[in-house]
Design brief:
- The protein is of the alpha+beta class and about 160 residues long.
- It has helices at about 1-10, 30-35, 60-70, 100-110; strands spanning about 45-50, 70-80, 110-125, 135-145.
- A four-stranded mixed sheet has the order 1-2-4-3.
Length: about 160
């Protein structure tokens, strides 16, 4: 019963047992525009980025915003490939980093990686056919620590 009540409170944006308001945000629009608003600064306990960080034109802009919106002690959980969606688009900015290049930038933005592994993620697979697509993705959990360094540059 307690789990059902907690789920109902969470679904309605209610309070948890410690009196904290439970909110989740999923908004259509450009991530950098929507979440740059001042009310998001340090407002989030967790950030989930499934199949997301490679949608950036400039992943450093994403990292800067992640560091602003996740409160110290909050977590960032990522799972996805680094395909860099704009890599082959003529006239579009595309900063394309490997995980080895991106990992130290995550730390430079105030996040400590506490878990990390490569994972295979089936995508659009049909178990009754011979067709399947699998992404080799990076999964990590990072904790927001101190203030990020001033605008670190890509290696």
């Amino acid at each position: 019963a307690a789990a059902a009540a907690a789920a109902a409170a969470e679904e309605e944006g209610g309070d948890d047992a410690e009196g904290r308001t439970l909110d989740m945000s999923m908004t259509a629009g450009d991530f950098l525009d929507v979440y740059a608003a001042p009310e998001h600064a340090g407002a989030w306990d967790a950030l989930l980025t499934p199949f997301f960080i490679d949608t950036a034109h400039d992943v450093l802009a994403y990292l800067e915003l992640f560091a602003r919106i996740v409160r110290p002690g909050g977590v960032w959980i990522n799972c996805g490939p680094l395909l860099w969606h704009f890599a082959d688009t003529p006239g579009e900015l595309s900063l394309e980093l490997t995980w080895e290049e991106l990992r130290p930038l995550v730390a430079a933005h105030g996040f400590r990686i506490v878990e990390e592994r490569s994972v295979d993620c089936p995508y659009a697979a049909n178990p009754r056919s011979l067709l399947s697509c699998t992404y080799h993705a990076i999964y990590f959990v990072a904790v927001r620590e101190g203030a990020p360094a001033d605008r670190p540059s890509a290696p």
